[in-house]
Design brief:
single chain, alpha+beta, Microbial ribonuclease fold, 3-stranded antiparallel sheet, 2 helices, 6 strands, globular, binds zinc ion
């Protein structure tokens, strides 16, 4: 039942502390993106706004703390 394009480890994504977004390059040229607060709330899907492909983000909740500190 997986409709995900891929599964990506959180440390392979790029975190921008200004926008609080994790991003990862999408094959369409845009980027998958998900807010850190959504991950904190249990969301684990990053969506590309241009082509609506999705990736599943692999992480532990405790991983997020080091990003919040940035
Ligand atoms: Zn895309």
């Amino acid at each position: 039942m997986s409709n995900y394009y891929d599964q990506i480890e959180i440390e392979d994504m790029t975190y921008d502390p200004v926008t609080q977004l994790f991003t990862y390059p999408c094959p369409c040229g845009d980027k998958f993106q998900v807010f850190i607060d959504d991950l904190k709330d249990g969301e684990d899907v990053a969506v590309c706004p241009s082509c609506s492909l999705m990736i599943q983000v692999i992480f532990d909740e405790e991983d997020l703390d080091e990003y919040y500190e940035k």
